[in-house]
Amino acid sequence: MVIPVGRRAVTAALFIGIIAATFSSVAMADEHESASPPVLSFVETELGESREGYFTLEWSAVDGAALYRVRDSANEIAYEGIATKSFQSGLSDGSYLYRVEAIGEDGQTIAISDEATATVRHWGLVPSLTLFAIGAVVVAGIVFVILRGRTVELRLLRQDAARLSDASRLQSMVEPGHVE
Length: 180
What we know:
By secondary structure, the chain is of the alpha+beta class. It has helices at about 5-35, 125-175, and strands spanning about 45-50, 55-60, 65-70, 75-80, 85-90, 95-105, 110, 115-120. It folds into 3 domains: about 1-35; about 45-120, Sandwich (Immunoglobulin-like); about 125-175. It is built from 2 helices and 8 strands.
């Protein structure tokens, strides 16, 4: 069964469809324009001073990020992976600046953090040698105590053996039938 459709009904349907499509396009554009970019930030931006030459960078997770890429001040990649933490080690004296990028599934950068800074200043020679000397004295003291304890133990064992020998000689003399 075919229902005849009038010209006005077709025009009205087209008009309503065009208006609905226009409003939906405008609403979608407003959603994209009003959506702020994802926030990516370090947990700590000032990491302070490291005397050992290492520190940990940690940042907030970003929805839609497939991986994170940490770059240093020379724009070299210091870390690339899915974790929201990176351990940086083996650093010489100096100041270090890092920023992290969130990379989406399509390989595009979706967010970039502000910089995090850290300073590495290793222990000087005098404190290092002082601690080494203290450690050497402690180790020498432990070795002395171990060796001294061993010599005392051996002397006591010899004394016990001599007493046992004397005791067994005395017992053999006391036994009946023993003639000297």
